[in-house]
Amino acid sequence: MSLPQSGSSSPRLTRRSFIVGSGVTAAGLALYSGVIARHAIQQVDTTIHIANLPSAFHGFRIVQLSDIHLDEFTEPLFLEHVVHRINALQPDLVLVTGDFITRGSLTFISDTHAAHRCAEILSTLKAPQTYTILGNHDVAVSSTLVTSALNSFKIPVLINRAVPIERAGSRIWLCGTDDAGGGHPDLDLTLPQQPDGPVILMVHEPDYADTVIQHPRGKLVDLMLSGHSHGGQIRIPFYGPLILPPLGQKYVQGHFRFGAMQLYVNRGIGAVGLPFRFDCPPEITVHTLQPA
After folding, report:
1. Minimal CA–CA distance to 224: which of 201, 254, 197, 245?
2. Among 22, 57, 129, 133, which residue has the fewest nearby CB atoms (within 10 Å)?
3. How big is the chain by its Cα radius of gyration, in Å?
4. Domain annotation covers residue 33
5. DSSP 205
6. Looking at the domain assignment, is residue 103 inside a domain?
């Protein structure tokens, strides 16, 4: 009676199972990152304490939206869903901190159409006021194209200028620069010399905060709002962001303090490079102003 001999098929079967299992896992991660996680919008609520905040602005609610990147890879239907979410919040002000479209888009939809469609959807925001700035992708495609699309739907774009937001005889100053990466930001033009109220500054690239701090009028800025980094978009556990863009590598996401000035970096709702997000959900931020 002969003993059973071990065959060579078992190791091959094990390797095959490993390869198949790895492929299934990779496909599952791609499906999760590209379909589920990329659309799992997260609402982040912050309370921003500002010194000398006029009483008329106590509890003033600002929704920040950033880095839309229509139509690669943000679908118009998803942006419509985001706008619906924002409208349900009934904010006092909506601020969009740049990158409405994507440079080098491979979609069949032209940049002109994407900018126009993005502006058209944003025009359904119901907040009393909405203001925007340009991002590096907008400037790389065409500042004129994106600005014209937004203006055609009566959505103002702040490029090195400031406007007062008034309420009950008091005001805060809202400022926006040209894109810090590909444009020509000018803080001398952007920041009011003697503001009669708190100053909120929109700059697409968060690392530009270092430049703001060093500017002679930088100490007048109470809050700076940025996007650009996407929070890293793909974050590896125990490692962090896989790739970060220039001027978005130091202040990646969330709330930072620089003495009197505060910075908030929104993760955005879009994606670039790959249509994936992992451990870094898209974000809309609700900033509630309160006195310090």
Report:
1. 201
2. 22
3. 23
4. no
5. -
6. yes
* Residue 239, both tokens: 């490692």
Q: Measured between alpha carbons, how far is 195 from 178 in angstroms, rounded to an integer?
A: 20
The model's pTM is: 0.89
Is-contact 271 70, C-beta < 8 A? Answer: no
Residues contacting 128, CB < 8 A, separation 6+: 92, 93
CATH number at residue 121: 3.60.21.10
Digit-coded pLDDT (tens) for 242-260 = 999 999 999 999 999 999 9
C-alpha dist (Å) from residue 242 to 96, 235, 267, 279:
25, 6, 14, 11
pLDDT of 107 reads 66
Q: In what order do the strands lie in the sheet with 254-258?
A: 161-167, 170-176, 199-202, 223-226, 261-265, 254-258
**Domain residue limits at 198:** 40-291
Which residues neighbour 201 within 8 Å (Cβ) at sequence distance 6 or greater?
175, 176, 177, 190, 191, 212, 221, 223, 224, 225
Strands (E), 214-260: 223-226, 235-236, 240-241, 254-258
Residue 265 within a domain: yes
- The domain tally of the chain equals 1
Residue 31 lies in a domain: no
Per-residue pLDDT tens digits for 48-105: 999 999 999 999 999 999 999 999 999 999 999 999 999 999 999 999 999 999 998 8
